[in-house]
Amino acid sequence: MARAKAPRLTAPPVQSRRTQRDWTARARGTALDAIRYSQFVALMKRALPIATAAILAAVVVYSLLPRASDRISIQAKTMRLIKNDLAMEKPKLTGTDDDGNPYVITAEIAIQEPKNIHHVHLQKVEADMTTKDGHWMNATAETGFFDMDKGLLNLVDGIAFYSDSGYELHTSTLDVEMKKGLYHGRNPVTGHGPFGAMRGDRFEFDRLKQMLHLMGRVHTTILPSAMRTHPK
Question: How far apart are CA 111 and CA 41, in angstroms?
Answer without folding.
Answer: 31
